[in-house]
Each structure stands twice: as C-alpha cells, then as structure tokens.
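Dear support,

We are seeing what looks like truncated structure output for some complexes. This example has two components. We would appreciate it if you could run it in full and send us the complete token output so we can diff it against ours.
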Amino acid sequence: MSNFIQNIGKKSPWLYRINAGSCNGCDVELATTALIPRYDVERLGCKYCGSPNHADIVLITGPVTAGVKEKVMRVYDEIPDPKVVVAVGICPISGGLFRDSYAIESTLDAFIPVDVNVPGCPPRPQAIIDGVAKAIEIWKERL
Amino acid sequence: MSITKLAFNMLIFPGGLFAVVISLLLMGIDRKIYARLQRRVGPPIYQPFIDVIKLLQKEILVPRSANFIVFRLAPLLGFIGMLVAVVIIPISGVYPGIDKSADLLVLLYLLSTPALAIMIGASASGSPYSAIGLSREMMVTIAYEIPLLIVLLTIAMKTGMAGGNFADFSLNHIVSFQQQNGSLIFNITMLPALLAYLCCIPGTIGVVPFDMPEAETEIAEGPTLEYSGSGLAMLNLTGGLKVVVISALAVALFFPSTLGGFWLVNLLWFILKCIILVTLSITVVRATRARMRMDQAFKFYLIVPTGLALVSLVLTLLSGKF
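Here is the complete output from our reference environment:
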C-alpha cells in the first residue's frame, strides 16, 4: 500500500522558490526559462505554488546573506513534511561569486539539509530540470 | 423519499462519490485542454486525483495566530454545501431531483457556501495575505451574484407564465417545460441570459480573468495561504464540486434534452454536455485572457452580464401574459 502511494504521489510535486539574497539570475531562470510551459514540466505534475504551505520541493537560490538568513529559516519551517531541498546555482553551494563578501555567513547546508545541488551561474534550464527530476526521486522515497 | 434512497443519493449518486469523481475528471480535462491550447502535452487527465492523494500525505500546519477550531472546520462547510447542491439538481432522464416547489432558491443560497467557507477560513487564518484575499473574494461574490440572480429569475418567470403563475422556482417544472416546448437555448429571447450566465461562470469558479482572490503572484495564494494537507485537499475538492454544480445547473436550465430512454445513454450525454460547457466557459477563457483588476471586474459585471440579463428579463416580461 505504501509503495502504491509512493508511486502515485510522486507524480504531483509542487514547487516553491525561495530567494536567499540572490542576484536574481537564477530566479529569472526559474521563472522564465527552466520550469515554464516551453519544456512542459507539467507532464510530471510540477506546478509553482504561491504559498510555502502548499509546497513539496523547495528551490533555493542565492548565497545566504546575513540579513535574510532568519527569514529563510522561518519560511523553510512553513513547508510541511515530506519535503526536498534543491540548491539552484553555485551561490548556495559555495557562495559563488560573492564568497569572500562580509555579508555571507556560510553555505546553505550549514542551516538547511540540502538534497540536490545544481551548480552553474546560472545553470542551464536542462540542468535545473534534471535537478528537479532527481529531487522527485528522492521525494518519492520520503512519502 | 426513503432514508436509504436519500443516503444513496447523497453519498453515491449523484452526490458524494459520483460528484467527486466527475469534478476531478472535469478539472483534469480542463487542464489538459488548457495545455493543448498552449501547444504542449500537459498533465494526464487523472492528475487531480493524484493531487488529492498527495495532499493527504502531507503534514498539517496550523499558524499560531489562527483560531484552531474554525480554521480546521471551515473547508467542511463549503464541501457539504456543494454535496447537498448536487443532490438537488435534476439530471434529465436519469435522476429526478428533489421534487419540491422552490428548490431553485435553495440552490441559490447553497451556491454561496463555498465562497463563505473560504472567507471564514481565511479570516480564521490570522494572516494579512488571507485578509486581502478575503476582501477580494467578498467583492467578487457581490459582483457576480447580481446577474446570476436576474438570469434565474428570468427563467423562473418564463416557466411560470406558461403555467399561469408569475414565477415558478421548481427545477423539475423548468425541465419539464423545456421538454414540452423545446430547450431554452434555442429561444432567441433567452440567448442574452445564456451569455450572461456564461460570463458569471469564471467569476464563480475563480479562474482567470476573475481570480484576483487567489492571485498567486500578488498575495501568495490569498485565502488558502495557511492551509496544507487535508484542509487544502478539501478546498480543492470544493472548487471542483462547484464546477459540477454550475455546469449541471446550466444544463438543467438551458438544454436538458435527453437521447431516448436508457439511463446510461442520458448520463453520458449529460457528462458530455458538462465537458463542452466547461471547455467553452472556463478553459478557452482561461487560456486567452489575463487577470483583471478588482475595479475592472466590478465594472464589467455590473455592465455587461447585468445588461444582457436585463434584456432577457424585459423580453420575457413583454412576451408573457402581462
């Protein structure tokens, strides 16, 4: 029965984007080129939702600056279990272009357990979709 | 009606199981046709079933500033209202409805329970985004109820004048009047009323161009913001049931023709009519329009559908026995 629910439920992952101090490059990719009707990720059941309470897969962009760290933790708590975290871009992984800045405390996985990393500045749309597909597989195990 | 027959009607057919399955199918078909209109493949037709099953696996989070009991029980209000509304509407050739004298008025009251449920749930959430969505929902409800009321009154008057009364609000009498005199869709004086009703449908369901209560990019999903898990599943199901009620009501009011005597053929013909209605009034409008502002939507509803419905009302009054 739980196997059946896993196989069925994995076909409807809802995505939510968090901007953790990003330069908006990866956000523009997410909003306009990667997970849009052109590549039709709705075949997999993905859709963007406007509220963290509705989300399953979180896409976090940007290096975690000191000003936004508390707010990202707060919004991350609003997402119900089971959830999967995808770090989009090189900034959450290592600080990226801004890694020597005074405003960056640490990488993202010091605060939040990251499941999938999608490096790139910005990553290609196909790489982002591949990351989301891997995240769906990880999410299926947690259902 | 015996109690077992009533329970069967409320829980299995046409309320309950049948209504939920048809509502999820209609939502799936709407999403599929919307995707095809955008030249892409789109999700499978059974996608809303998967959405509901997935939502039942999620954790339920209640905000600290929310009124716990009202927050959890508000989605039930709309769901139960819509289940009862489905039982009232007759399906011609299959199900006779509840044969009472003023069930159209009861249906009008029941049609406002989902909006009420969303409003109560949103105000119990304790979030400013929900408050904005709630006030927008109230304004849209006020806007589309006016032409809807005039259309229902026009049809009741047309049925009533044929029988000698002023207005006849019984759905059974409306259906049998059309089975004797031809469907109202082929009547030239009723065409403005049909157009006004079709204009009211996107506002009732909450799709583009009238979905500012749940504008995702502006107010983070509005009234349903704090709901997760089974509460959200019930709100989605209520939205789907509202589609079924609105389209079944349109079929009963405007074109309740049957295809012979066998109940299965009539049932499939009814479902096909609902699919065509949903495609024309929800999917095509959703694919070709942008979201309106609150004042634009209010102005539209007070001028265009109200004007069309009033034209039909005046023509019906003039052609009657008065």
